[in-house]
Design brief:
There is one protein chain. By secondary structure, the protein is of the alpha/beta class. The protein is about 35% helix and about 15% strand. It has 15 helices and 19 strands. It has an eight-stranded mixed sheet with strand order 11-12-13-15-16-17-19-18, covered by helices on one side. Strand 12 and strand 13 form a beta hairpin.
Length: about 550
Protein backbone atom coordinates (compact mmCIF):
# COMPACT_ATOMS: atom_id res chain seq x y z
CA UNK A 1 0.00 0.00 0.00
CA UNK A 2 2.78 2.23 0.93
CA UNK A 3 4.60 1.53 -2.34
CA UNK A 4 1.46 2.02 -4.38
CA UNK A 5 0.88 5.33 -2.69
CA UNK A 6 4.41 6.46 -3.43
CA UNK A 7 4.03 5.48 -7.07
CA UNK A 8 0.86 7.54 -7.41
CA UNK A 9 2.46 10.56 -5.75
CA UNK A 10 5.44 10.24 -8.12
CA UNK A 11 3.18 10.32 -11.14
CA UNK A 12 1.37 13.40 -9.85
CA UNK A 13 4.68 15.11 -9.09
CA UNK A 14 6.04 14.33 -12.55
CA UNK A 15 2.91 15.80 -14.09
CA UNK A 16 3.29 18.95 -12.03
CA UNK A 17 6.93 19.33 -13.08
CA UNK A 18 5.98 18.94 -16.73
CA UNK A 19 3.62 21.98 -16.55
CA UNK A 20 4.65 25.63 -16.56
CA UNK A 21 3.75 28.09 -13.90
CA UNK A 22 0.74 29.09 -15.98
CA UNK A 23 -0.51 25.52 -16.09
CA UNK A 24 0.34 24.82 -19.74
CA UNK A 25 2.26 21.60 -20.51
CA UNK A 26 5.95 22.04 -21.33
CA UNK A 27 6.12 19.15 -23.76
CA UNK A 28 3.68 19.12 -26.67
CA UNK A 29 1.32 16.24 -26.97
CA UNK A 30 -2.01 15.42 -28.54
CA UNK A 31 -3.86 15.13 -25.35
CA UNK A 32 -1.77 16.84 -22.73
CA UNK A 33 -0.98 20.27 -24.64
CA UNK A 34 -4.10 21.86 -26.31
CA UNK A 35 -3.90 25.42 -27.91
CA UNK A 36 -4.89 28.05 -25.29
CA UNK A 37 -7.87 30.41 -26.04
CA UNK A 38 -5.96 33.59 -25.06
CA UNK A 39 -3.36 33.15 -27.83
CA UNK A 40 -6.07 32.57 -30.43
CA UNK A 41 -7.93 35.75 -29.49
CA UNK A 42 -4.67 37.70 -29.55
CA UNK A 43 -3.81 36.53 -33.05
CA UNK A 44 -7.31 37.26 -34.32
CA UNK A 45 -7.28 40.77 -32.84
CA UNK A 46 -3.93 41.67 -34.41
CA UNK A 47 -4.95 40.31 -37.81
CA UNK A 48 -8.27 42.14 -37.90
CA UNK A 49 -6.63 45.36 -36.78
CA UNK A 50 -3.99 45.07 -39.52
CA UNK A 51 -6.62 44.42 -42.23
CA UNK A 52 -8.77 47.37 -41.11
CA UNK A 53 -5.80 49.75 -40.95
CA UNK A 54 -4.61 48.64 -44.43
CA UNK A 55 -8.08 49.18 -45.92
CA UNK A 56 -8.27 52.57 -44.23
CA UNK A 57 -5.00 53.68 -45.81
CA UNK A 58 -6.03 52.47 -49.26
CA UNK A 59 -9.39 54.24 -49.04
CA UNK A 60 -7.81 57.49 -47.86
CA UNK A 61 -5.20 57.44 -50.65
CA UNK A 62 -7.89 56.89 -53.30
CA UNK A 63 -9.99 59.74 -51.93
CA UNK A 64 -7.04 62.16 -51.97
CA UNK A 65 -6.26 61.25 -55.57
CA UNK A 66 -9.89 61.75 -56.57
CA UNK A 67 -10.08 65.05 -54.73
CA UNK A 68 -7.00 66.41 -56.51
CA UNK A 69 -8.32 65.23 -59.88
CA UNK A 70 -11.68 66.89 -59.32
CA UNK A 71 -10.02 70.08 -58.13
CA UNK A 72 -7.64 70.31 -61.08
CA UNK A 73 -10.23 69.44 -63.73
CA UNK A 74 -12.83 71.81 -62.26
CA UNK A 75 -10.35 74.64 -62.05
CA UNK A 76 -9.20 73.99 -65.61
CA UNK A 77 -12.79 74.07 -66.86
CA UNK A 78 -13.46 77.24 -64.87
CA UNK A 79 -10.54 79.03 -66.46
CA UNK A 80 -11.48 77.91 -69.96
CA UNK A 81 -15.22 78.55 -69.51
CA UNK A 82 -15.65 81.04 -66.67
CA UNK A 83 -19.34 81.57 -67.43
CA UNK A 84 -20.23 77.86 -67.52
CA UNK A 85 -18.25 76.22 -64.76
CA UNK A 86 -17.84 76.86 -61.08
CA UNK A 87 -15.32 75.29 -58.75
CA UNK A 88 -16.98 72.67 -56.47
CA UNK A 89 -15.31 70.72 -53.70
CA UNK A 90 -17.00 67.56 -52.28
CA UNK A 91 -17.34 68.30 -48.56
CA UNK A 92 -17.39 64.60 -47.59
CA UNK A 93 -14.03 63.91 -49.19
CA UNK A 94 -12.49 67.01 -47.66
CA UNK A 95 -13.74 66.00 -44.23
CA UNK A 96 -12.41 62.46 -44.54
CA UNK A 97 -9.05 63.74 -45.70
CA UNK A 98 -8.88 66.15 -42.82
CA UNK A 99 -9.61 63.33 -40.35
CA UNK A 100 -6.90 60.98 -41.60
CA UNK A 101 -4.10 63.41 -42.48
CA UNK A 102 -1.70 64.55 -39.78
CA UNK A 103 -1.95 68.27 -38.91
CA UNK A 104 1.37 69.30 -40.40
CA UNK A 105 0.55 67.42 -43.61
CA UNK A 106 -2.86 69.11 -43.80
CA UNK A 107 -1.26 72.56 -43.63
CA UNK A 108 1.21 71.62 -46.33
CA UNK A 109 -1.56 70.32 -48.63
CA UNK A 110 -3.54 73.54 -48.16
CA UNK A 111 -0.51 75.67 -49.03
CA UNK A 112 0.17 73.58 -52.12
CA UNK A 113 -3.45 73.98 -53.30
CA UNK A 114 -3.31 77.72 -52.70
CA UNK A 115 -0.17 77.96 -54.81
CA UNK A 116 -1.96 76.11 -57.61
CA UNK A 117 -4.87 78.56 -57.43
CA UNK A 118 -2.58 81.58 -57.51
CA UNK A 119 -0.65 80.23 -60.46
CA UNK A 120 -3.68 79.23 -62.54
CA UNK A 121 -6.12 82.05 -61.84
CA UNK A 122 -6.13 84.97 -64.25
CA UNK A 123 -4.58 88.19 -62.97
CA UNK A 124 -7.22 90.89 -62.35
CA UNK A 125 -7.44 93.28 -65.25
CA UNK A 126 -6.54 96.89 -64.52
CA UNK A 127 -9.19 99.48 -65.40
CA UNK A 128 -8.44 101.65 -68.38
CA UNK A 129 -7.02 105.05 -67.55
CA UNK A 130 -9.24 108.07 -68.05
CA UNK A 131 -8.64 109.80 -71.37
CA UNK A 132 -9.88 113.11 -72.71
CA UNK A 133 -12.67 111.40 -74.71
CA UNK A 134 -14.10 110.14 -71.38
CA UNK A 135 -14.73 113.76 -70.36
CA UNK A 136 -17.63 115.95 -71.46
CA UNK A 137 -17.32 119.72 -71.08
CA UNK A 138 -20.28 121.88 -70.18
CA UNK A 139 -19.44 125.50 -71.04
CA UNK A 140 -21.55 128.37 -69.74
CA UNK A 141 -21.68 131.24 -72.23
CA UNK A 142 -23.47 134.51 -72.83
CA UNK A 143 -24.94 135.41 -76.19
CA UNK A 144 -23.91 139.03 -75.70
CA UNK A 145 -20.22 138.14 -75.28
CA UNK A 146 -20.14 135.13 -77.61
CA UNK A 147 -18.29 136.67 -80.56
CA UNK A 148 -15.47 137.81 -78.27
CA UNK A 149 -15.16 134.91 -75.87
CA UNK A 150 -15.48 132.07 -78.34
CA UNK A 151 -11.85 132.82 -79.27
CA UNK A 152 -10.80 131.60 -75.82
CA UNK A 153 -12.57 128.29 -76.38
CA UNK A 154 -10.86 127.81 -79.74
CA UNK A 155 -7.47 128.01 -78.02
CA UNK A 156 -7.87 124.79 -76.03
CA UNK A 157 -10.84 122.87 -77.47
CA UNK A 158 -10.11 120.17 -80.09
CA UNK A 159 -13.35 118.98 -81.76
CA UNK A 160 -11.77 115.80 -83.14
CA UNK A 161 -10.57 114.69 -79.69
CA UNK A 162 -12.97 116.18 -77.18
CA UNK A 163 -16.67 116.29 -76.39
CA UNK A 164 -18.56 119.25 -75.03
CA UNK A 165 -21.54 121.57 -75.33
CA UNK A 166 -21.75 125.35 -75.11
CA UNK A 167 -24.92 126.42 -73.30
CA UNK A 168 -26.21 129.89 -74.17
CA UNK A 169 -29.10 132.05 -73.07
CA UNK A 170 -30.12 132.83 -76.65
CA UNK A 171 -29.36 131.93 -80.24
CA UNK A 172 -26.11 133.19 -81.80
CA UNK A 173 -24.47 133.18 -85.21
CA UNK A 174 -22.64 129.91 -85.70
CA UNK A 175 -20.50 129.92 -88.85
CA UNK A 176 -19.11 126.87 -90.71
CA UNK A 177 -15.70 127.75 -89.29
CA UNK A 178 -17.16 127.65 -85.79
CA UNK A 179 -18.43 124.12 -86.41
CA UNK A 180 -14.87 122.98 -87.12
CA UNK A 181 -13.27 124.69 -84.12
CA UNK A 182 -15.93 124.85 -81.40
CA UNK A 183 -18.25 122.50 -79.51
CA UNK A 184 -21.89 122.35 -80.57
CA UNK A 185 -24.08 125.15 -79.25
CA UNK A 186 -27.36 124.69 -77.37
CA UNK A 187 -29.81 127.11 -75.79
CA UNK A 188 -30.58 126.37 -72.16
CA UNK A 189 -34.09 125.33 -71.25
CA UNK A 190 -36.54 127.79 -69.71
CA UNK A 191 -36.03 128.37 -65.97
CA UNK A 192 -38.73 130.98 -65.37
CA UNK A 193 -40.63 128.62 -63.08
CA UNK A 194 -37.73 128.65 -60.58
CA UNK A 195 -37.82 131.34 -57.90
CA UNK A 196 -34.93 133.82 -57.67
CA UNK A 197 -34.96 136.47 -54.95
CA UNK A 198 -31.36 137.73 -54.72
CA UNK A 199 -31.37 141.44 -55.57
CA UNK A 200 -27.63 141.65 -56.29
CA UNK A 201 -27.42 138.74 -58.70
CA UNK A 202 -28.97 137.65 -61.97
CA UNK A 203 -31.37 134.80 -62.50
CA UNK A 204 -29.17 133.39 -65.30
CA UNK A 205 -27.41 131.69 -62.38
CA UNK A 206 -30.23 129.14 -62.32
CA UNK A 207 -29.79 128.04 -65.94
CA UNK A 208 -26.00 127.86 -65.51
CA UNK A 209 -26.34 125.71 -62.40
CA UNK A 210 -28.35 123.20 -64.48
CA UNK A 211 -25.77 122.77 -67.25
CA UNK A 212 -24.45 119.45 -65.91
CA UNK A 213 -27.99 118.13 -65.66
CA UNK A 214 -28.92 119.24 -69.18
CA UNK A 215 -25.70 117.81 -70.61
CA UNK A 216 -26.32 114.45 -68.96
CA UNK A 217 -29.83 114.31 -70.42
CA UNK A 218 -28.31 114.39 -73.90
CA UNK A 219 -27.45 110.71 -73.23
CA UNK A 220 -23.91 110.60 -74.55
CA UNK A 221 -22.09 107.27 -74.28
CA UNK A 222 -19.05 106.28 -72.22
CA UNK A 223 -18.86 109.31 -69.95
CA UNK A 224 -16.73 109.28 -66.82
CA UNK A 225 -16.59 112.97 -65.92
CA UNK A 226 -18.49 116.17 -66.54
CA UNK A 227 -16.30 119.28 -66.41
CA UNK A 228 -17.89 122.67 -65.98
CA UNK A 229 -16.30 125.93 -67.17
CA UNK A 230 -17.10 129.41 -68.44
CA UNK A 231 -16.62 130.85 -71.91
CA UNK A 232 -13.60 132.81 -70.60
CA UNK A 233 -11.98 129.72 -69.07
CA UNK A 234 -8.92 128.14 -70.70
CA UNK A 235 -8.10 124.53 -69.82
CA UNK A 236 -4.79 122.70 -70.05
CA UNK A 237 -6.59 119.49 -70.93
CA UNK A 238 -3.63 117.12 -70.51
CA UNK A 239 -3.25 118.25 -66.92
CA UNK A 240 -7.00 118.02 -66.39
CA UNK A 241 -6.81 114.36 -67.36
CA UNK A 242 -3.85 113.86 -65.01
CA UNK A 243 -5.93 115.19 -62.13
CA UNK A 244 -8.98 113.08 -62.96
CA UNK A 245 -6.91 109.90 -63.18
CA UNK A 246 -6.20 110.21 -59.49
CA UNK A 247 -9.83 109.48 -58.64
CA UNK A 248 -12.23 106.59 -59.11
CA UNK A 249 -14.82 107.77 -61.62
CA UNK A 250 -17.31 105.17 -60.38
CA UNK A 251 -17.56 106.96 -57.02
CA UNK A 252 -19.08 110.33 -56.07
CA UNK A 253 -16.53 113.10 -56.64
CA UNK A 254 -16.91 116.89 -56.75
CA UNK A 255 -13.49 118.32 -57.65
CA UNK A 256 -12.45 121.96 -57.93
CA UNK A 257 -10.83 124.84 -56.10
CA UNK A 258 -11.55 128.04 -54.19
CA UNK A 259 -11.32 131.73 -54.94
CA UNK A 260 -8.11 133.69 -54.43
CA UNK A 261 -10.17 136.16 -52.40
CA UNK A 262 -10.63 135.36 -48.74
CA UNK A 263 -13.72 137.59 -48.68
CA UNK A 264 -15.27 135.71 -51.59
CA UNK A 265 -14.73 132.39 -49.83
CA UNK A 266 -16.28 133.70 -46.64
CA UNK A 267 -19.24 135.24 -48.46
CA UNK A 268 -19.95 132.10 -50.51
CA UNK A 269 -18.21 129.06 -49.02
CA UNK A 270 -14.80 127.53 -48.42
CA UNK A 271 -16.41 124.26 -49.45
CA UNK A 272 -17.56 125.46 -52.87
CA UNK A 273 -15.88 124.93 -56.24
CA UNK A 274 -15.82 128.10 -58.33
CA UNK A 275 -17.23 127.37 -61.77
CA UNK A 276 -15.11 129.92 -63.62
CA UNK A 277 -11.98 128.04 -62.59
CA UNK A 278 -13.78 124.86 -63.55
CA UNK A 279 -14.88 121.84 -61.57
CA UNK A 280 -15.40 118.15 -62.30
CA UNK A 281 -18.28 115.87 -61.30
CA UNK A 282 -18.08 112.11 -61.68
CA UNK A 283 -20.77 110.40 -63.76
CA UNK A 284 -22.48 108.59 -60.85
CA UNK A 285 -22.68 111.85 -58.92
CA UNK A 286 -24.15 113.61 -61.97
CA UNK A 287 -26.83 110.91 -62.20
CA UNK A 288 -27.70 111.42 -58.55
CA UNK A 289 -27.76 115.18 -59.08
CA UNK A 290 -30.21 114.94 -61.98
CA UNK A 291 -32.77 113.19 -59.81
CA UNK A 292 -32.91 115.93 -57.20
CA UNK A 293 -31.44 119.17 -58.55
CA UNK A 294 -34.68 120.89 -59.59
CA UNK A 295 -36.18 120.30 -56.16
CA UNK A 296 -32.91 121.41 -54.58
CA UNK A 297 -32.80 124.67 -56.54
CA UNK A 298 -36.30 125.53 -55.43
CA UNK A 299 -35.15 125.40 -51.81
CA UNK A 300 -32.48 128.09 -52.31
CA UNK A 301 -34.05 131.06 -54.15
CA UNK A 302 -31.94 133.60 -52.22
CA UNK A 303 -28.51 132.36 -53.30
CA UNK A 304 -26.44 134.63 -55.54
CA UNK A 305 -24.92 132.50 -58.29
CA UNK A 306 -24.75 129.10 -59.94
CA UNK A 307 -21.74 127.83 -57.99
CA UNK A 308 -23.35 128.19 -54.57
CA UNK A 309 -26.52 126.51 -55.83
CA UNK A 310 -24.43 123.59 -57.06
CA UNK A 311 -22.63 123.39 -53.71
CA UNK A 312 -25.94 123.48 -51.84
CA UNK A 313 -27.10 120.43 -53.78
CA UNK A 314 -23.76 118.71 -53.16
CA UNK A 315 -24.29 119.34 -49.44
CA UNK A 316 -27.71 117.70 -49.61
CA UNK A 317 -26.11 114.73 -51.35
CA UNK A 318 -23.44 114.66 -48.65
CA UNK A 319 -20.53 115.06 -51.08
CA UNK A 320 -17.71 117.42 -50.00
CA UNK A 321 -15.44 119.39 -52.26
CA UNK A 322 -12.20 117.64 -53.23
CA UNK A 323 -9.75 120.50 -53.61
CA UNK A 324 -7.24 120.62 -56.46
CA UNK A 325 -5.16 123.80 -56.53
CA UNK A 326 -4.57 123.69 -60.28
CA UNK A 327 -8.07 125.03 -61.01
CA UNK A 328 -7.71 128.83 -60.96
CA UNK A 329 -10.66 131.16 -60.52
CA UNK A 330 -8.38 134.23 -60.48
CA UNK A 331 -10.67 136.60 -58.63
CA UNK A 332 -8.10 139.37 -58.96
CA UNK A 333 -7.38 142.41 -61.10
CA UNK A 334 -4.22 143.59 -62.78
CA UNK A 335 -1.15 141.53 -63.61
CA UNK A 336 -1.13 137.77 -62.97
CA UNK A 337 2.68 137.62 -63.13
CA UNK A 338 3.18 137.12 -59.39
CA UNK A 339 0.70 134.25 -59.28
CA UNK A 340 1.96 132.48 -62.39
CA UNK A 341 5.67 132.88 -61.60
CA UNK A 342 5.14 131.16 -58.23
CA UNK A 343 2.63 128.53 -59.25
CA UNK A 344 2.00 125.90 -56.54
CA UNK A 345 3.52 122.46 -56.94
CA UNK A 346 0.56 121.00 -58.78
CA UNK A 347 -0.46 120.72 -62.45
CA UNK A 348 -1.80 123.89 -64.06
CA UNK A 349 -5.37 122.99 -65.05
CA UNK A 350 -7.23 126.21 -65.85
CA UNK A 351 -7.14 130.00 -66.11
CA UNK A 352 -10.16 132.26 -65.70
CA UNK A 353 -11.27 135.91 -65.82
CA UNK A 354 -9.01 136.49 -68.79
CA UNK A 355 -11.02 139.55 -69.82
CA UNK A 356 -10.44 141.14 -66.43
CA UNK A 357 -6.67 140.71 -66.03
CA UNK A 358 -3.87 141.92 -68.27
CA UNK A 359 -2.43 139.66 -71.03
CA UNK A 360 -0.07 137.16 -69.41
CA UNK A 361 2.67 138.04 -71.95
CA UNK A 362 3.49 141.71 -72.60
CA UNK A 363 2.95 143.60 -75.85
CA UNK A 364 0.44 141.09 -77.28
CA UNK A 365 -3.31 140.62 -77.11
CA UNK A 366 -4.93 138.30 -74.58
CA UNK A 367 -5.65 135.68 -77.21
CA UNK A 368 -2.12 135.85 -78.64
CA UNK A 369 -0.65 135.51 -75.16
CA UNK A 370 -2.68 132.37 -74.48
CA UNK A 371 -1.78 130.91 -77.86
CA UNK A 372 1.89 131.36 -76.95
CA UNK A 373 1.27 129.55 -73.67
CA UNK A 374 -0.07 126.56 -75.58
CA UNK A 375 3.34 125.99 -77.22
CA UNK A 376 5.03 124.62 -74.08
CA UNK A 377 1.77 122.90 -73.16
CA UNK A 378 2.11 120.77 -76.30
CA UNK A 379 5.72 119.74 -75.63
CA UNK A 380 5.61 119.25 -71.87
CA UNK A 381 2.21 119.98 -70.37
CA UNK A 382 3.13 118.43 -67.02
CA UNK A 383 5.91 120.96 -66.48
CA UNK A 384 4.19 124.14 -67.64
CA UNK A 385 4.40 127.00 -65.11
CA UNK A 386 6.35 124.83 -62.66
CA UNK A 387 8.82 126.84 -60.61
CA UNK A 388 12.50 125.95 -60.11
CA UNK A 389 14.91 127.91 -57.90
CA UNK A 390 18.69 127.93 -58.14
CA UNK A 391 21.69 130.20 -57.58
CA UNK A 392 24.64 131.49 -59.57
CA UNK A 393 27.26 131.31 -56.82
CA UNK A 394 29.94 133.15 -58.77
CA UNK A 395 27.74 136.19 -59.33
CA UNK A 396 25.55 135.90 -56.21
CA UNK A 397 22.33 135.80 -58.23
CA UNK A 398 19.08 134.10 -57.43
CA UNK A 399 17.28 132.57 -60.41
CA UNK A 400 13.61 131.56 -60.48
CA UNK A 401 12.35 129.69 -63.55
CA UNK A 402 8.64 129.34 -64.25
CA UNK A 403 9.01 126.94 -67.16
CA UNK A 404 7.15 127.92 -70.30
CA UNK A 405 6.35 131.36 -68.94
CA UNK A 406 9.13 133.51 -67.45
CA UNK A 407 12.52 133.64 -65.73
CA UNK A 408 13.43 136.06 -62.94
CA UNK A 409 16.98 136.96 -61.94
CA UNK A 410 17.56 138.75 -58.63
CA UNK A 411 20.67 140.39 -57.29
CA UNK A 412 21.64 138.75 -54.02
CA UNK A 413 20.22 135.69 -52.32
CA UNK A 414 16.51 135.05 -51.85
CA UNK A 415 15.43 131.92 -49.98
CA UNK A 416 13.07 129.41 -51.63
CA UNK A 417 10.63 130.13 -48.81
CA UNK A 418 10.33 133.71 -50.06
CA UNK A 419 10.22 132.97 -53.77
CA UNK A 420 7.53 130.30 -53.56
CA UNK A 421 5.16 132.99 -52.27
CA UNK A 422 3.54 135.06 -55.05
CA UNK A 423 4.61 138.69 -55.22
CA UNK A 424 1.67 141.07 -55.16
CA UNK A 425 1.66 142.25 -58.77
CA UNK A 426 -2.17 141.94 -58.73
CA UNK A 427 -5.03 143.63 -56.93
CA UNK A 428 -7.72 142.12 -54.74
CA UNK A 429 -11.19 141.42 -56.10
CA UNK A 430 -12.50 143.82 -53.48
CA UNK A 431 -10.56 146.98 -54.21
CA UNK A 432 -10.72 148.29 -50.64
CA UNK A 433 -9.20 145.10 -49.23
CA UNK A 434 -5.48 144.81 -48.54
CA UNK A 435 -3.08 141.89 -48.72
CA UNK A 436 -4.74 140.20 -45.72
CA UNK A 437 -7.81 139.50 -47.87
CA UNK A 438 -6.07 136.79 -49.92
CA UNK A 439 -6.68 133.13 -49.21
CA UNK A 440 -2.93 132.35 -49.43
CA UNK A 441 0.42 133.85 -48.45
CA UNK A 442 1.86 136.65 -50.55
CA UNK A 443 4.93 138.86 -50.41
CA UNK A 444 5.21 142.54 -51.31
CA UNK A 445 6.92 143.80 -54.42
CA UNK A 446 10.35 144.89 -53.23
CA UNK A 447 10.91 148.64 -52.94
CA UNK A 448 14.66 148.28 -52.87
CA UNK A 449 15.88 149.14 -56.41
CA UNK A 450 18.66 146.55 -56.14
CA UNK A 451 16.19 143.76 -55.37
CA UNK A 452 13.86 144.41 -58.26
CA UNK A 453 13.92 141.29 -60.47
CA UNK A 454 15.03 141.23 -64.10
CA UNK A 455 12.21 139.49 -65.95
CA UNK A 456 12.63 137.39 -69.12
CA UNK A 457 9.47 136.18 -70.89
CA UNK A 458 9.36 133.09 -73.08
CA UNK A 459 9.67 134.04 -76.72
CA UNK A 460 10.40 130.75 -78.44
CA UNK A 461 10.46 127.01 -77.92
CA UNK A 462 11.72 124.02 -79.85
CA UNK A 463 12.40 120.33 -79.36
CA UNK A 464 15.96 119.03 -79.66
CA UNK A 465 15.31 115.49 -80.90
CA UNK A 466 18.96 114.46 -80.63
CA UNK A 467 19.21 115.29 -76.94
CA UNK A 468 15.51 114.62 -76.28
CA UNK A 469 15.03 117.93 -74.51
CA UNK A 470 13.14 121.14 -74.98
CA UNK A 471 15.06 124.35 -75.60
CA UNK A 472 13.09 127.44 -74.57
CA UNK A 473 14.25 131.03 -75.02
CA UNK A 474 13.32 133.87 -72.69
CA UNK A 475 13.88 137.44 -73.83
CA UNK A 476 14.49 140.32 -71.50
CA UNK A 477 11.45 142.46 -70.75
CA UNK A 478 12.77 145.93 -71.42
CA UNK A 479 11.59 148.16 -68.63
CA UNK A 480 13.73 150.82 -66.97
CA UNK A 481 15.56 149.69 -63.85
CA UNK A 482 16.56 152.16 -61.15
CA UNK A 483 20.32 152.44 -60.51
CA UNK A 484 21.81 150.09 -57.93
CA UNK A 485 24.98 150.82 -55.92
CA UNK A 486 25.67 147.25 -54.93
CA UNK A 487 29.17 146.20 -55.98
CA UNK A 488 28.32 142.94 -57.68
CA UNK A 489 27.61 141.50 -61.13
CA UNK A 490 24.78 143.31 -62.86
CA UNK A 491 22.06 141.25 -64.66
CA UNK A 492 21.35 144.35 -66.75
CA UNK A 493 23.92 143.06 -69.24
CA UNK A 494 21.84 139.95 -69.98
CA UNK A 495 19.56 139.82 -73.00
CA UNK A 496 18.38 136.20 -73.04
CA UNK A 497 18.02 133.13 -70.87
CA UNK A 498 18.03 129.67 -72.47
CA UNK A 499 16.42 126.86 -70.49
CA UNK A 500 17.01 123.20 -71.35
CA UNK A 501 14.54 120.70 -69.98
CA UNK A 502 13.67 117.11 -70.80
CA UNK A 503 9.94 116.40 -71.08
CA UNK A 504 8.68 114.59 -68.01
CA UNK A 505 5.16 113.26 -68.61
CA UNK A 506 5.35 111.19 -65.40
CA UNK A 507 6.18 114.17 -63.21
CA UNK A 508 2.90 113.96 -61.30
CA UNK A 509 3.03 110.19 -60.89
CA UNK A 510 5.66 110.82 -58.22
CA UNK A 511 5.33 112.65 -54.93
CA UNK A 512 5.00 116.44 -55.37
CA UNK A 513 8.36 118.21 -55.51
CA UNK A 514 9.74 121.22 -57.34
CA UNK A 515 12.21 120.54 -60.11
CA UNK A 516 15.78 121.66 -59.59
CA UNK A 517 17.67 124.03 -61.89
CA UNK A 518 21.42 124.42 -62.50
CA UNK A 519 23.29 127.32 -64.02
CA UNK A 520 25.41 126.09 -66.95
CA UNK A 521 28.35 127.64 -68.78
CA UNK A 522 27.45 129.83 -71.72
CA UNK A 523 29.77 130.92 -74.51
CA UNK A 524 27.34 133.46 -75.91
CA UNK A 525 27.73 136.96 -74.47
CA UNK A 526 24.62 138.37 -72.85
CA UNK A 527 23.15 134.88 -72.49
CA UNK A 528 22.79 132.56 -69.52
CA UNK A 529 21.95 128.85 -69.83
CA UNK A 530 19.93 127.03 -67.20
CA UNK A 531 19.16 123.32 -67.03
CA UNK A 532 15.88 122.25 -65.38
CA UNK A 533 15.04 118.70 -64.37
CA UNK A 534 14.33 116.22 -61.63
CA UNK A 535 16.41 116.85 -58.53
CA UNK A 536 19.32 114.48 -58.11
CA UNK A 537 19.96 112.56 -54.93
CA UNK A 538 20.92 115.05 -52.25
CA UNK A 539 20.33 118.08 -54.47
CA UNK A 540 18.58 121.03 -52.81
CA UNK A 541 18.12 124.72 -53.50
CA UNK A 542 20.85 126.32 -51.41
CA UNK A 543 23.73 128.71 -51.94
Amino acid sequence: MKDAKKDSEKVVWDQIQMRSASGNPLVPGPSTRPIPKLRVWLILFVSVTYVIYTLKLLTSSAQQTCDHTLFTSSLHRSLLHPNKTRLTFPPLILNQTADTTPPHHRHRDVREKQVVVVQLQKAPTKPNLTEIHDVVFGIAASSKLWQQRKEYIKIWYKPNQMRGVVWLDDRVKYSPEDKQTLPPVRVSSDTSNFAYTNRQGHRSAIRISRIVTETLRMKMDNIRWFVMGDDDTVFITDNLVRILRKYDHTQYYYIGSLSESHIQNIFFSYGMAYGGGGFAISYPLAKALVKMQDRCIQRYPGLYGSDDRMQACMAELGVPLTKELGFHQYDVYGNLFGLLAAHPVTPLVSLHHLDVVEPIFPNVTRVEALQRLMLPAKLDSAGIMQQSICYDKNKSWTISVSWGFAVQIFRGIFSPRELEMPSRTFLNWYRRADYTAYAFNTRPVSRNPCQKPFVFYMSGLRMDSELNQTVSEYERHLVPHPPCRWKMADPDELEMVIVNKKPDPHLWNRSPRRNCCRVMESKEPGTIVVNVGVCKDGEISEI
